TrEMBL record:
PANTHER family: BILIVERDIN REDUCTASE A. The lineage of its organism: Bacteria, Bacillati, Actinomycetota, Actinomycetes, Micromonosporales. It comes from Micromonospora echinofusca. Residues 8-115 form the Gfo/Idh/MocA-like oxidoreductase N-terminal domain. Residues 129-240 form the GFO/IDH/MocA-like oxidoreductase domain. This is Gfo/Idh/MocA family oxidoreductase.
Amino acid sequence: MADRMPTVAVIGLGAFGRAHLQAYVRAGARIAAVADRDPDLAHRTAEEFDVPASFTDAVELLDAVPIDGVSVVTSAASHVELAREATLRGCKVLLEKPIATTAAELATLPDAARSRILPGHVLRFAPLHQRLRTEIASGRIGAVRGVAAGRSRTRDHQRLYADVHPARMTGIHDIDLVTWLTGSPIRRVVASVDGEPTSLVQAHLLSASGIASSIRVSWLLPDGAGAEDELEVYGQEGVARLRVDSTGAVLYGQSRERPWAVAPPTDTPGLDAEISHFLRWLRDDVEPLVTFAAAAHAVAVADAIVASGTAGGTPIDVLEVPSWTKQ
Ligand SMILES: NC(=O)c1ccc[n+]([C@@H]2O[C@H](COP(=O)([O-])OP(=O)(O)OC[C@H]3O[C@@H](n4cnc5c(N)ncnc54)[C@H](O)[C@@H]3O)[C@@H](O)[C@H]2O)c1
C-alpha cells in the first residue's frame, strides 16, 4: 500500500500550511516539494520536514516537480490563480477556504478545473461535527427548523487577515455548516457589520426550503485567548448543541451534564481526516466529501453577507442558488 501513496506538495507555509505538512507526515504521504514566496520560510520548512525541494514561485514548483496533488494554503487572494495553474497541469488540489475571495473571481476558473478541486471545508471532517450530522440524520431532534452559529476569534485576526472580510475568512465555516446540516442552499441574507476594520458580522440566512438560520462572527477576543465556537441546531423534537473551546469539544442535547460525545482540545479539528480523504481521492478517486458546488455556494453567500452589511442591512438575494447543493 505504501508504494501507492500519492506524492504531494504544499504551497503556502504559514501556520496552516505547516499544519497541512504535519498532517501529511502523520498520514505517511510523500511530500516532494514546498513553496512559499518568503524564501527563508520555504527553505527552513523544507529542511525541517526533510522535503527534497523548495520554491519561492509556486508555478515553478508545479512545472518542475511531478506530483499527484497539492495543498494550496496561501492567503485567499491567490487561491483561484494557484488552483487554475495546478489543475491545468493535471494536478488535484486541496484548496483552503475561502476557495475564492468572491464568486466573480471563482467564475474565472475553467469548468475542467472544478472536478479537480477538493475545498478545504475542514469542519465537515471534524469528529463531533460529523456525529452531529449523523444524529440529525437519524432523526434524534426531528426535522431541522433552524441553526444558530457563533464563532469568536482573537483581535489579531484584524491584522493577520486584513485583506479578507471576516464573513469570508471565518464565517464561511458557518455558512457551509448551515447548508450541510439543513441540506438546503441559502437564497437570501440580511447582515449587519461593525468595526473599522470590520470585526463583528451578524447575519440572518434564509434557505431555499424556508429554514431561517443565523451566524455571528467576531474578531474581538483578546489576543492569546482560545477560539470559541458554538452551534445550535433546532429540530422539531429537540435541540442539539456543539461547543468548541480551548478545553475541547462537547456535543449535547438538553443536558450538558450528559453529553452525546466529547473530544479533546485540538487546533486543527478534522484536518487529519481531511488530509487522509484527499490522499484517498488522489489514489483511488473516491467520491469527494466536499463538492466544488457547495464551496462555490458558500462564497456566493459570503458575497451577499458583505453586500448586505455594506448596505446597512438591506436584504440581498444570493446569486445563483443551486436547485440542490450536493452535500
Ligand atoms: N480550515 C481552517 O480552519 C483554517 C485555519 C487557518 C487557516 N486556514 C486557511 O489557510 C490559508 C492560510 O492561512 P494561514 O493562517 O496559514 O495564513 P498565513 O498568512 O500565516 O500564511 C500564508 C502563507 O502563504 C504565503 N503565500 C501567500 N501567497 C503566496 C503565493 N502566491 N505563493 C506562495 N506563497 C504564498 C505567505 O508568504 C505566507 O507564508 C488561508 O486561506 C486560511 O483561510 C484555514
